[in-house]
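Long-time lurker, first post. I've been practising inverse folding by hand and with some scripts of my own, and I keep getting stuck on stretches where the structure tokens seem ambiguous. Below is the full token string for one chain I'm working on. Before anyone asks, I'm not after the true native sequence, just a reasonable design that respects the backbone. If someone could post their per-position residues I'd love to compare against what I wrote down in my notebook.
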């Protein structure tokens, strides 16, 4: 069991207060129950550490031995909280991490992560010293970046590893086939530089018809045949890793599936959602027939109603598109969102729950009673995709990491 480290406590000193008024600091609560830890919080995120470990294990079994897992934890680990997620994954045996920005890689090193970190997104030549200092593997798209990395590595007495990303049809980042081959050969001879990897990314990985992946794979294979000396090849996100056994190569870049949600049109092993969003009911009030609720009064009571206030809003990443569309669970029952989602709060109809009261647990995402609200459901109601629903969750929500209901650490909030 991994309990809160002493350093975590040492790094969270009580903030200096100018007045004698007690400053309520959200106590870091290792070993306490979820209920105790969340009793007096407006809203929070719960991360089920065992579910995360289970998903990793199930996905590794699905992709098979001999293929590394590159855990993609960009965007604050898809909203789950990088400080809590990364150490769990490293301890569970993930071989590499993938991030989008150099700064995210530096953050991982600051957390003590030792495994290789691939920066999948764009980097500037100015990033080279930081990349070398933190031993980050950059995706290199230009000679200028390669020269800067080589110089920084030589100065530091290190070797900077780079990967070359081939644009095989997504037309987002990377370089063309010919450019990539020429770039790899030019970088090969630079001191302090090792061209370790070659990668691409699929455009239609989770579409019902993913046949475009065949054309992309053919182009990628042509690149690998011209660069047989580059040892590490990777092309697969969650959907490609699960749908395309032939495109797994040395490593698969898994993001969403670690969160227990499979991409559309993607069969996979049984996974467990790791992330719940919960809140405490703040106020319960009467809405007489005909009265409106929330900005614009877009919802009106068709009968005498009870309105429950949920202290979560779009400042927490809860989409404004869920106004008059989303649902939450209170006392095991679905309650519809009524009126617009505001910056810090929204209102739900709790007419069916006469006993509902301040402090009741509200589940926005996750399970309660026998029911569950999943990220794909929320995303669809908001007109978006689960990646967006997760990644939108902002820093105001504390992340409570627990193992079977026993809290291991609380970050943020
Ligand atoms: C975000 C990202 C991934 C992870 O995708 P999932 O669908 O979440 O598994 C993989 N590769 C690249 C290049 C990415 O940007």
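-- Answer (accepted) --
I ran through it position by position. Result:
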């Amino acid at each position: 069991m991994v309990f809160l480290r002493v350093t975590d406590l040492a790094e969270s000193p009580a903030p200096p207060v100018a007045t004698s008024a007690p400053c309520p600091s959200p106590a870091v609560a290792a070993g306490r129950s979820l209920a105790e830890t969340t009793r007096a919080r407006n809203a929070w995120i719960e991360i089920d550490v065992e579910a995360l470990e289970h998903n990793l294990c199930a996905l590794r079994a699905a992709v098979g031995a001999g293929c590394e897992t590159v855990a993609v934890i960009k965007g604050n680990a898809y909203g789950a909280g990088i400080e809590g997620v990364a150490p769990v994954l490293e301890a569970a045996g993930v071989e590499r991490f993938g991030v989008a920005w150099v700064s995210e890689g530096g953050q991982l090193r600051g957390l003590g992560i030792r495994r290789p970190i691939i920066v999948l997104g764009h980097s500037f030549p100015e990033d080279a010293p930081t990349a070398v200092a933190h031993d980050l593997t950059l995706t290199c798209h230009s000679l200028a970046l390669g020269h800067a990395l080589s110089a920084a590595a030589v100065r530091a007495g290190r070797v900077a590893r780079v990967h070359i990303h081939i644009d095989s049809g997504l037309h987002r980042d990377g370089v063309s086939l010919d450019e990539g081959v020429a770039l790899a050969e030019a970088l090969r001879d630079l001191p302090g530089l090792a061209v370790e990897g070659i990668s691409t990314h699929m455009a239609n990985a989770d579409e019902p018809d993913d046949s475009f992946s065949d054309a992309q794979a053919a182009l990628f294979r042509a690149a690998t045949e011209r660069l047989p000396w580059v040892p590490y090849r990777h092309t697969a996100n969650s959907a490609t890793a699960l749908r395309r056994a032939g495109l797994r190569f040395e490593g698969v870049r898994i993001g969403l599936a670690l969160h227990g949600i499979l991409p559309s049109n993607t069969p996979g092993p049984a996974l467990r959602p790791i992330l719940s969003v919960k809140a405490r009911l703040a106020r319960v009030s009467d809405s007489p027939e005909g009265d409106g609720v929330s900005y614009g009064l877009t919802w009106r009571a068709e009968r005498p109603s009870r309105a429950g206030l949920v202290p979560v809003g779009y400042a927490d990443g809860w989409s404004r598109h869920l106004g008059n569309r989303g649902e939450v669970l209170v006392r095991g029952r679905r309650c519809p969102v009524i009126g617009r989602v505001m910056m810090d709060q929204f209102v739900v109809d709790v007419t069916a729950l006469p006993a509902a009261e301040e402090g009741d647990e509200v589940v926005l995402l996750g399970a309660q009673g026998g029911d569950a609200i999943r990220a794909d459901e929320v995303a669809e109601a908001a007109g978006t995709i689960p990646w967006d629903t997760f990644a939108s969750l902002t820093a105001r929500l504390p992340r409570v990491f627990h193992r079977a209901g026993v809290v291991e650490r609380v970050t943020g909030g």
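A couple of notes from the structure itself: Residues 72, 74, 120, 201, 237-238, 253-257, 263, 387 surround pyridoxal-5'-phosphate (CB under 6 Å). Residues 277 and 365 are 5 Å apart (CA to CA). Happy to go over any region you disagree with.
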